Amino acid sequence: MVDWSDDRIAALSKQDLKNLLANAERKSAAEVIARCKAEMDKRDTSKPRKASKPRTELKEFEHRMSEQLAEIGKAMAAKYDLSEQTAKARSAGVKGFKAHKLLDSNGYAKLGGMQRDGSVAVDRYISYRRGKDIVSIGVFLLKDQPVEAHEFHVIAPLAVLDGGKPIAEIRPTATEAQKQTADSGLAFTDLASAAAVFEAALSKIAA
Fold it and tell me: Of 6, 78, 1, 13, nearest to 36 (Cα)?
């Protein structure tokens, strides 16, 4: 009977090690099984890990903006009742009503349809719906543009958005198939200004 010492097992090739483990398992040789698995774990640990690719400038920007938009959403949720339960309760009678999740499943801004279909470089947003009214704030960047060219868009019904402009003015590349969630919007170059307008519109439907 072969004495499968640690040194002897360590000298085996990867395939021979697998074969020995399989054979030991068939024979219920607990000590050999344990030594084989220990050697496999040791080899896995010593393998060089593939370095994750660094984010591109665009992806880094998108991630940062998604975090900042999410922080605005969390601040609004702490100030107003934006729960799905309340939205549903106060939207009774609205056919086909579906409450909006403020953030995505990872706690970041949601992925907008125009980025999803590849027609723009960045379209990330947070939104709230009550009844037929939807208010959103997001970051928007056209394709082949430097990140500095991004804008922040607040989209909401004209009735709650002071000075709102037609969507076609702030998103001229949007097609009918990329129909927006409301009939008016405003574009900003800084997030703080956009956030203030977003809250003003949101407060009118969430009060």
Answer: 6
- In this structure, what token pair is assigned to residue 151? 């804008």
Phi–psi pair at 148, nearest 5 degrees: -65, -15
Which residue reads 């074969």 in tokens? Answer: 19
Chain position carrying tokens 């990872």: 106
Look at residue 122 and give its three-state secondary structure.
Answer: strand
Question: How long is the chain?
Answer: 207
Residue 57, Cβ density class (10 Å: 0-12 exposed, 13-18 middle, ≥19 buried): exposed
The phi, psi pair for 76, rounded to 5°, reads -70, -40
Which residue in this structure is represented by tokens 């956030």? 195
Three-state DSSP state, 169: helix
Tell me the DSSP string of 33-76: HHHHHHHHHHHHHHSPPPPPPPPPHHHHHHHHHHHHHHHHHHHH
Q: What CA–CA distances, in Å, run from 84 to 5, 21, 28, 51, 201?
A: 62, 53, 55, 40, 18
How many C-beta neighbours within 10 Å does residue 180 have?
19
Q: At what angle do helices 57-79 and 191-206 cross, to 10 degrees?
A: 40
The predicted-structure confidence for 71-130, as pLDDT tens digits, reads as follows 999 999 999 999 989 999 999 889 989 999 999 999 999 999 999 999 999 999 999 999
